[in-house]
Amino acid sequence: TLLKAGPVVLMFYRGQWCPYCNLELRAYQQALPRLQAQGASLVAISPQTPDNSLSTTEKNDLSFPVLSDSGLHVSRAYGLAFDLPAELVELYQQRWGNDLVKWNGSDGGWSLPIPATYVIGRDARILLAHVDPGFAKRQLLLMLREWYMHPNGQLPAYEWNFSDVNPPVHAWAALRVFEIAGHDDYDFLERAFHKLLLNFTW
């Protein structure tokens, strides 16, 4: 229905539990008048349940549709969905207290979409696709910078609590990002490795 009125900007995000996703949603809300001036519509989609999608809309004061992709059927059709490995599921549950089944329902389980944005024309063709695994690389390299590293090599385990240095997941994260991005960005591995050596001495 939206395509009959003009192009659609379709963005995939992980969920309300993700602080970066909320920032992105608010940025799109600010850009919405410019998109509408070009005759485009904006739609956000995540694997969250309908109730959690509604909560996301209210929490971020959004005026564009926020849809639920139960079971990640749409995300898989776009080639964006991936299943979290067992060790990361354990980390989400025990360290971060984040139960994705609570957010996504049993159909979504422990799967997530890679954040992505598409511009779809009125003829249903994809005019632009922005799927950026480089975001994960930049975020990881940022956390490895000297700005966040203690002189003894300690690194914060995650960005919302810089005083917590456990679990030391950075080497594992660098390897996982390297694999997800296609096993070919050795420059990224080299940049991460130098900082990880300092972290290892701690």
Q: What is the element layout, followed by pairings?
A:
Layout: H1 2-5, E1 8-12, H2 19-37, E2 41-46, H3 50-60, E3 66-68, H4 73-77, E4 81-83, H5 86-95, H6 100-108, E5 111-113, E6 116-120, E7 126-131, H7 134-143, H8 170-180, H9 186-201
Parallel strand pairs: 1-2, 2-3
Antiparallel strand pairs: 1-6, 4-5, 6-7
Helix pairs in contact: 8-9
Written account of the structure:
By secondary structure, this protein is of the alpha/beta class. It is built from nine helices and seven strands; from the N terminus they run αβαβαβαβααβββααα. Helix 8 (170-180) runs antiparallel to helix 9. It is globular and about 60 Å long. The model has no long low-confidence stretch (mean pLDDT 87).
Low-confidence stretches: none
- Write down the Rg: 19 Å
Structural class: alpha/beta
Give the CA-CA distance, first to last residue.
Answer: 57 Å
The largest sheet has its strands arranged as 3-2-1-6-7
- One letter per element, helices H and strands E, the order comes to HEHEHEHEHHEEEHHH
Strand content: 15-25%
Summed over residues and divided by their number, the pLDDT gives a mean of 87
How many beta-strand elements? 7
Helix-residue proportion: 40-55%
Shape: globular
Largest sheet: 5 strands, mixed
Discrete helix count? 9
